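Predict the 3D structure for this chain.
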Amino acid sequence: MKYGSRKITKAGVIALTSSNKAEVNHAIEMISDWRSLHLPALDELQSSLLQLLKKNRIRVFSVSRRLKRISSILNKLDRNPKSGLGTMQDIGGLRIVVQTMDSLNKVLMVILNNVPNNFEFTKSPINYIENPKDVSGYRSIHVVYKYHSNNADIDGMKIELQLRTKLQHSWAMAVETAELITGTALKSSQGEEEWITFFKVVSSLFAIKERTPIMNEHKEKEYGMKELMRILYQMNNKYNFNDTLKALNVTCSFAKRDNYKDGYYILSINFSTKKVNIKAFPKENEEDASALYSRLEKSIENNKSAVVLVSVPKMQQLQEAYPSYFLNTGEFLVAIDTMMQNCKKWGWT
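Done. Predicted structure below.
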């Protein structure tokens, strides 16, 4: 491999701890280059899995792939100092979203029984639907693949596949929207306690709707739908979470309107103007996309803006797959509004 585990782990340590600006910039450039080497594995895995699901007549709501932002990489390392960058398994991420739990269970069964050529599982799937994350209520299924290639530079790259239902996806995107605005890692239980509690309650309510396990802390308190909806109603009235999220809609100005199929898109998000600029690249120009992504990341000012490199089969699917990057939480808000109305109608306030 171009970058061994020890070498890239050292770069992560330098980027976090060094006081030498030139040394930090060199480390981040190395991390960016290593990150871009995940793209071939991402492309091949997505193509293989979509063919597999099509063959088994499984309908997919959305599919997308992304490279983890440098800020997210460094934040994760900062939260987990004992885990080195070289062991991080979600630098390249592929996400498949389906409509229902029945479809999700079918997808999981097919995927586990059919490993694509050039890939292997690194470990058993982690099922955060059966066991929601205690710190946040996050629900999804994670499967990690290791890539095998004759190209030594990319051999051994790891890709994380996330499997979710549409409802689970709406929750996760709402959390990401709140994270982008507040500049905190709510999924890691960092940030305002009110926001964390709010999303935990919604997670368990969505779990009840999908007939899957609720969070342990709610189970221990013997909370059911009535108790959780009452908490949701009271918190939302006090802190106006729904109104806050509704106010965060942005408009999109397309830097380039070419509708590349299966291309790469760089989204530059300005929180002050609430606008998202999009630059599109055809699939064969992935190196150019990755290089621009790295340059733009260096120009970010604290929580005033964000930039991300993502990919979807068609540009029209971009906002559907990544609503959080457009500060669009429509699906989530509809579900919350419905629960709020029912809570009032049923007298559970």
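The chain has a mean pLDDT of 87.
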